[in-house]
Amino acid sequence: MGNEIRWGVVGPGRIAQSVMGDFVHVEGARPVAVASRSADRAQAFAQQHGLERAHGSYAEIVADPDVDVLYLATPHPQHHAVALAAIEAGKALLVEKAFTATTAGAREVVDAARANGVFVMEAMWTRFQPAVVRMRELIADGAIGEVRSVQADLGVDRAYDPADRLFALELGGGALLDLGVYVVSFAQMLLGAPDRVTAAGSTFPTGADAEAALLLTYDDGRSATLTTSLRYPTPGQARVFGTGGWIDVLPRFHHPATIVLHRTGADPEEITLPPDGTGYSHELAEVTRCLQAGRTESDVMPLADTLAVQDVLEQAAYQLGVHHREDPHAL
């Protein structure tokens, strides 16, 4: 690929609307096309954002020869089928979290990407926020010693509406896939894949999970305590405990501007590093740089981490009696 990476958007919903404004901060990236199951909706999105082409189906943008990478922002169960078609067509992908609705679906997408040498990355913007990047640098430098425990919460109070995507099981609704993915990914980033997952929570009448408390434990004694909810609000803070101190990631931790370093025996050190734009620019820049360099995976958000997170989410969902399915008819 050349220096300019041409982007297409699949699914012009709320998240895609927010992401579009951050392309101005990404050198070498140019959004050129959008696809929706509604041609009118695609056309309206294209006009709003100055895109060259609007496609009335996902299959059309997958076949568009003038698109290098697709930003996949459809409901979770549609990711699997669209991603497989895109990979077969040689299209790189930035796939919104949660990556897929199921672990089996995620493995199939990852296997296809690796077999075909196609770049794919989960859109976990948290890992690319400047404050989180700095936190990881401090931890790598031994600022708080060995990380032994992580706490994180992310909850909102949403009025129950069975027709809304958040509450519809067939659309991947529920707290775990929408918000829990953040707390699980944060813990996995710092501790790796757990040896055991224990979950408690409740479900909505639709069968989607309403809230979940997760305990991730490791054979060497490390742990993570995580909370997610669509039923009640939480501060959205994270805390990383080490043998030599701790780091607070101030709300909301999944796109923070400020962290506070507490070294044992020293005064707290507040570090503020706001994101460029809304904060999506950093993951867009990562994908763009990787494609320009001919890479097929990101070191910051590798596919192995995505699979580990998906597995934890599925284990927790099963313990709550929630069983997600992929949509085989997404195209």
From TrEMBL:
<dbReference type="Pfam" id="PF01408">
    <property type="entry name" value="GFO_IDH_MocA"/>
</dbReference>
<dbReference type="InterPro" id="IPR036291">
    <property type="entry name" value="NAD(P)-bd_dom_sf"/>
</dbReference>
<comment type="similarity">
    <text>Belongs to the Gfo/Idh/MocA family.</text>
</comment>
<protein>
    <submittedName>
        <fullName>Predicted dehydrogenase</fullName>
    </submittedName>
</protein>
<dbReference type="InterPro" id="IPR000683">
    <property type="entry name" value="Gfo/Idh/MocA-like_OxRdtase_N"/>
</dbReference>
<dbReference type="InterPro" id="IPR055170">
    <property type="entry name" value="GFO_IDH_MocA-like_dom"/>
</dbReference>
<keyword id="KW-0560">Oxidoreductase</keyword>
<feature type="domain" description="Gfo/Idh/MocA-like oxidoreductase N-terminal">
    <location>
        <begin position="5"/>
        <end position="122"/>
    </location>
</feature>
<dbReference type="InterPro" id="IPR050984">
    <property type="entry name" value="Gfo/Idh/MocA_domain"/>
</dbReference>
<dbReference type="Pfam" id="PF22725">
    <property type="entry name" value="GFO_IDH_MocA_C3"/>
</dbReference>
<feature type="domain" description="GFO/IDH/MocA-like oxidoreductase">
    <location>
        <begin position="133"/>
        <end position="247"/>
    </location>
</feature>
<dbReference type="GO" id="GO:0000166">
    <property type="term" value="F:nucleotide binding"/>
</dbReference>
<dbReference type="GO" id="GO:0016491">
    <property type="term" value="F:oxidoreductase activity"/>
</dbReference>
